[in-house]
Design a protein that fits this description.
- The complex is a heterodimer of chains A (151) and B (218).
- By secondary structure, chain A is mostly helical.
- Chain A has a single domain, classed as Up-down Bundle (Bromodomain-like).
- Chain A has four helices and two strands, in the order αααββα.
- In chain A, β1 and β2 form a beta hairpin.
- In chain A, α1 runs antiparallel to α4.
- In chain B, 56% of the residues lie in helices and 10% in strands.
- Chain B has nine helices and five strands.
- Chain B has a five-stranded mixed sheet.
- The chains are: A mainly alpha (151), B alpha+beta (218).
- At the A-B interface, α1 and α2 of A face α1 of B.
């Protein structure tokens, strides 16, 4: 889409894109820690769709983290497709969870069912909904950050 | 530069919170598992279960065992050594936890061999050949029969016994007890009713030693 030269778009060292990028990274970090806690500590086996969301979420911590440490605004662009893919899978997962899409379409083999009612924390918040919220916030923050990189 | 420290600090805080939370959660669930084992004490040892070692031993290791499970295979010689080295103070009670596809068939074959007094021989053969028959994507437990040909079994009788309702009934009881005791992974160990809290060879040995020492004090 954009054709700007990356080197000039950094907004200087620690430009204004840094704050929203930091928040996006923090959300990815918390989501990653949370997913690992649910899976490894609490022993909730991730279902297939959870795994795909993890595949999108975990690298965001590294990509955005390096972007922060190197003050590299281009990391936003590399993170965008990951966040978008994760967001789409999380949304689909919510539809499965609420029964709006039947699970027969989803290949949930080993591990938990993707529509399992157990996939809630604090009693009532569905994990896929948390995932959608996290990816949405990350996308918005990345978008804000991208605008700051350009200006 | 302090912004970089913000990143490092956030990582450190999240890691600390994770580890702290994990410790709290582990401790709480360990208490819970202990409570469940206490409340379902009768589910640990059943009369139909195979026993290895001195039947009158004061210390009982209950192992929830899955013949398809690689870790059960790795633990088998260790547990056997613990029992053999105890001079009759420790016995092993085998309960089944068929958590893999095909494990039920494998168990039926082993139990059929047991009816002819060749249980431990059959079990050891099945474990040695586990990589051949227990691939999780394509389990072929019937291949165990090939491993048992030189044990001197009446194979026709064994094949008939394997399908017997008595064996199926015992297996159902084991599965019910496994669920009552909340065993979700194999091997699942209980020593004199105390669940093994941290999984591992050294931890199992320590728990057994502790119970042996307790049994010695009148």
């Amino acid at each position: 889409m954009s054709t700007e030269q990356p080197t000039d778009q950094l907004g200087g060292h620690f430009g204004r894109f840094w704050a929203p990028l930091f928040l996006a990274w923090l959300i990815a970090l918390l989501a990653t820690a949370g997913a690992l806690f649910l899976g490894e500590v609490m022993g909730m086996t991730p279902c297939v769709l959870c795994w795909y969301q993890r595949i999108a979420m975990f690298p965001l911590v590294v990509v955005l983290g390096l972007g922060l440490l190197e003050a590299d605004g281009r990391s936003v662009r590399y993170a965008m497709p990951l966040a978008a893919a994760g967001w789409a899978i999380a949304l689909y997962h919510c539809l499965v969870f609420w029964g709006l899409v039947t699970e027969a379409l989803v290949p949930c083999g080993k591990g938990g069912s993707c529509a399992d009612a157990e996939m809630q924390i604090v009693g009532f918040v569905p994990i896929p909904l948390l995932s959608v919220a996290a990816f949405t916030m990350i996308l918005v923050l990345l978008w804000v950050s991208k605008k700051e990189v350009k200006t | 530069m302090n912004k970089k420290w913000l990143v490092v600090g956030a990582v450190a805080a999240v890691v600390l919170a994770f580890v702290g939370g994990a410790l709290v959660f582990k401790d709480r669930s360990a208490q819970e598992v202990k409570q469940v084992a206490q409340n379902n004490n009768e589910a640990l040892v059943r009369a139909h279960a195979p026993v290895f070692g001195n039947p009158a031993a004061k210390v009982t290791i209950v192992e929830f065992f899955d013949p398809s499970c690689e870790t059960c295979r790795a633990f088998y010689p260790l547990v056997k050594r613990i029992v053999n080295a105890s001079f009759g103070q420790v016995r092993l009670v085998v309960r089944y936890a068929p958590l893999h596809k095909g494990s039920d068939t494998a168990i039926q074959i082993l139990e059929a061999a047991r009816l002819q007094g060749k249980y431990w021989e059959a079990l050891e053969r099945a474990l040695v050949d586990q990589p051949r028959w227990a691939a999780h994507h394509n389990p072929q437990p019937a291949l165990i029969w090939d491993s048992l040909t030189d044990l001197g079994l009446d194979m026709a009788k064994a094949r008939a016994d394997a399908a017997s309702p008595a064996i199926a009934q015992a297996l159902r009881q084991d599965i019910a007890d496994m669920q009552a005791l909340q065993v979700k992974q194999t091997p699942g160990f209980f020593v004199n009713g105390t669940p093994l809290r941290d999984f591992g060879e050294a931890q199992l040995k320590a728990l057994v030693d502790q119970e042996v020492a307790k049994a010695r004090v009148p």
